[in-house]
């Protein structure tokens, strides 16, 4: 496709999520054109190894040099699906400075540099979308932004890491060790080869930091947020909870009382009456308590190629058609 009026997108990263974004855009062309009034075209992809074979159209420019991405004519949006603070922060800073809109799924980057990127985007008059940084396929950023217009959010309890939730579920259901459950999660693509961020709780920590900043409008220092992972859990711990008709969950908590804010990520033992008790497998769930609306639960897949990719494409659509959030993209696995 080479329509001059198309919205031209560059993807940074073509791993699980990046390739998913490409596939959603390619397979939903008619729907996307209807939503935003123009075709959406992936014109370039930034990768580490340009010699690796990838499934994409011959018209897509593949490079390992970000400066070649910036030099592309008529580029509109950069969609970032890599990991870590750098070089992503440098890439997105340059993209924003060049007047490009940005969509990111990088929770570590946004937890540490989200404030700076949002200020830079505001100064440059471009959009910065980050829905996919927090809960995979669960659109909690948009929901909280709308809630904040009238409601004051008093508390959040959230399962924000699909990998750790999957492992805890498997340990209980199949009476297997954490190590065996982790191996299964890796085989299914839910956990990375290096699972430290999931197992030690850092992934959930980054997401809690992002939500805390969203709710308070203040930058969060990671050193002031307590973080515990699931690495110390045994099947005996899980069985003891079962005997009490309880389940152990890996939960991020935010509590707000006036100017006081408390945030942490820890292991929480919940009873059958708790809204997070039945959240199993790779699902994420966010329990929000508002001063006017009471309790709301947002639940959906927190890991996997298409849930995260579809949310990123929703963000892309939202840049050009703000009312489109009421029309959800349906993706097929």
TrEMBL record:
Q: Is Kinase a UniProt keyword of this protein?
A: no
Give the record's keywords alphabetically. Amino-acid biosynthesis, Methionine biosynthesis, NADP, Oxidoreductase, Sodium, Threonine biosynthesis
Q: Which reaction does it catalyse?
A: L-homoserine + NADP(+) = L-aspartate 4-semialdehyde + NADPH + H(+)
Q: What is its EC number?
A: 1.1.1.3
Entry-linked PROSITE patterns: HOMOSER_DHGENASE
Task: Give the residues the record marks as binding NADPH.
Answer: 107
Identify the InterPro entries for this entry: Asp/hSer_DH_NAD-bd, HDH_cat, HDH_CS, HDH_short, NAD(P)-bd_dom_sf
Q: Which GO terms describe its biological process?
A: methionine biosynthetic process; threonine biosynthetic process
Could you say which residues bind NADP(+) here?
13-18
What region holds the Aspartate/homoserine dehydrogenase NAD-binding domain? 13-131
The UniProt entry annotates the active site at 207 (proton donor)
Please list the residues that bind L-homoserine. Answer: 192
The molecular function terms in GO held by this entry are: homoserine dehydrogenase activity; NADP binding
Protein's pathway = Amino-acid biosynthesis; L-methionine biosynthesis via de novo pathway; L-homoserine from L-aspartate: step 3/3; Amino-acid biosynthesis; L-threonine biosynthesis; L-threonine from L-aspartate: step 3/5
Tell me which residues make up the Homoserine dehydrogenase catalytic domain.
139-317
Has UniProt tagged this entry with the keyword S-adenosyl-L-methionine? Answer: no
Name the protein family: Belongs to the homoserine dehydrogenase family.
Protein's name in the database: Homoserine dehydrogenase
Query: Which species is listed as the source?
Result: Piscibacillus halophilus
């Amino acid at each position: 496709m080479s329509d001059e009026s198309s919205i031209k997108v560059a993807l940074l990263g073509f791993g699980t999520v990046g390739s998913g974004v490409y596939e959603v855009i390619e397979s939903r062309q008619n729907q996307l054109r209807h939503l935003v009034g123009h075709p959406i075209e992936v014109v370039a992809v930034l990768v580490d190894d340009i010699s690796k074979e990838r499934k994409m159209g011959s018209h897509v420019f593949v490079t390992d040099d970000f400066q070649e991405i910036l030099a592309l004519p008529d580029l509109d949006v950069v969609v970032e699906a890599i990991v870590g603070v750098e070089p992503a922060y440098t890439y997105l800073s340059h993209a924003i400075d060049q007047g490009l809109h940005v969509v990111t799924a990088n929770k570590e980057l946004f937890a540490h540099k989200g404030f700076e990127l949002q200020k830079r985007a505001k100064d440059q008059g471009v959009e910065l979308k980050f829905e996919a940084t927090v809960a995979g396929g669960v659109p909690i950023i948009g929901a909280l932004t709308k809630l904040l217009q009238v409601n004051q959010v008093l508390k959040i309890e959230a399962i924000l890491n699909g990998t750790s939730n999957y492992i805890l579920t498997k340990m209980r259901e199949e009476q297997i060790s954490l190590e065996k459950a982790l191996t299964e999660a890796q085989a299914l693509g839910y956990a990375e080869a290096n699972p430290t961020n999931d197992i030690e709780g850092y992934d959930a920590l980054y997401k809690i930091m992002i939500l805390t900043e969203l709710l308070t409008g203040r930058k969060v220092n990671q050193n002031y947020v307590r973080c515990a992972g699931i690495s110390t859990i045994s099947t005996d711990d899980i069985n003891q909870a079962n005997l009490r008709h309880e389940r152990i969950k890996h939960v991020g908590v935010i509590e707000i009382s006036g100017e006081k804010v408390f945030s942490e990520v820890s292991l929480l033992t919940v009873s059958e009456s708790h809204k997070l008790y039945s959240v199993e497998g790779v699902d994420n769930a966010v329990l929000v308590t508002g001063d006017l609306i009471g309790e709301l639960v947002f639940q959906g897949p927190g890991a996997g190629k298409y849930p995260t990719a579809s949310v990123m494409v929703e963000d892309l659509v939202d840049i050009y058609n703000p009312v489109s959030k009421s029309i959800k993209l349906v993706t097929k696995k």
